[in-house]
Structures are given as structure tokens and as C-alpha cells.
Amino acid sequence: GVTSLSSYSVGAGDYFAVHQKIEGFNTADLAWGTVNAKTVTLSFWVYSSLTGSFGGAIQNSAETRSYPFSYTVSSANTWTQITVTIPGDTTGTWLTTSGIGMWVIFNLGAGATFSGTANTWAATNYTNPTGAVSIVGTNGATWYITGVQLEKGSTATSFDYRPYGTEFALCQRYFY
Q1: Which among 58, 63, 65, 165 would be 20 to 30 A from 24, CA to CA?
Q2: Using CA atoms, how far apart are residues 129 and 34, in angstroms rounded to an integer?
Q3: What confidence tens digit (pLDDT) does each residue in 132-167 have?
Q4: Which helix (H) or strand (E) holds 171?
Q5: Residue whose C-alpha is closest to residue 115's, from 95, 89, 138, 133
Q6: Cα distance from N-terminal residue to C-terminal residue, the chain
Q7: How many other β-carbons are positioned within 10 Å of the β-carbon of residue 172?
């Protein structure tokens, strides 16, 4: 959850976001950067004190390919389920190693430098679609997210809950 503690006027070169890195080993089967690139579906639940068109993006690790997406919150302070279908990127470099395969970004406010056309692949670092709601621009605004899931294909499925022990074992791979 995020609460804006002021009414910040976002500058052209500013952006605020919540993001998740996804390892290249986990995205390799998407074949992004090739003619066989597969579509993915991002689903999540969002709750906001603001309404309107919000945004985020999918990016490669080099931040040279991005797909700014938009989603709508119609009712304030109500949990809303969102589903965004994203066509696979047939160009660019997408790591298929232990490095960052992709970023999933939920934007909280972005200036013109980081904003671009919604639902279109671009050869630049966009984190947000142009004109999206700026959460940091409203004093006291709140935004919550849960149940985020990215999966191959054009259909969102129910959220996959994993037992704590399974999740812990998966995390141990990164422990040193």
C-alpha cells in the first residue's frame, strides 16, 4: 500500500513506482525478442482513493523496450480486479539468464520523459501511459495492490497461492 504525504508536482524527469523484477530463467519461454513472442496476461486487485485511468509498464532489463499499459479504477475505495493482456515483444533484447528478464511496473506518477502511448511497444524507457492518474500528486491519496499474477496466454486464471514452506524454499536460492 502507498499513501501520498503531499501534493507533489511531478517534474518531466521524475517517476514514482512499485515494481517487481522477474528473473530471465522465468521469462525465457515467452520468447520475447523473437518472431515467436508469446502474449502474457497481468492480473491484480487494486484499491485507490482516486478514480480514473492509472498506469504501469512492462520493460526489459536494459530499459530500452517498454509497453506502458493503462487500467481504470471507476469506484474509489473499492477493490477492483484488473486484467491487462500484453502482446509479446518481437524485438529488443530480453535476458533469459539469471539476470532481470523483465520489470513489471505499477506507476504512482510520472513526468513526460517516462510517459508514452498506452498499449504500444516502444523503444525507450516508459513507465507509464501519458495522462495517467498521479497518486503522488494528491495529498492523502491511497493506493493498494494485491494478488498480482503474470502468466503466459490471453486468459487470467485464479491467483496461485503457495504454502509458506514452498515460498521459503524458493527464496533460499537467492540466500548467501
Answers
A1: 165
A2: 25
A3: 999 999 999 999 999 999 999 999 999 988 999 998
A4: helix 164-171
A5: 133
A6: 29
A7: 7
Separation CA 17–CA 31 (nearest Å): 26
Nearest to 16 by CA among 169, 136, 159, 119: 136
pLDDT band at 174 (very low <50, low <70, confident <90, very high): confident
Of the candidates 95, 90, 103, 87, the residue with the CA atom closest to the CA atom of residue 25: 95
Unique residue bearing C-alpha cell 499474477: 149
Q: What 3-state class would DSSP assign to 78? A: coil
Note if the pTM is more than 0.85.
Answer: yes
Where does the chain show beta strands of DSSP type E? 2-3, 15-23, 40-48, 52-59, 66-73, 80-86, 100-110, 115-116, 128-129, 142-152
Residue among 55, 57, 61, 71 at smallest CA distance from 27 = 61
Distance, C-alpha 5 to centroid of its chain: 23
d(CA 20, CA 10): 22
CA-CA distance, 147 to 30, in Å (whole number)? 21
Picking from 86, 103, 106, the residue whose alpha carbon sits closest to that of residue 94 is 103
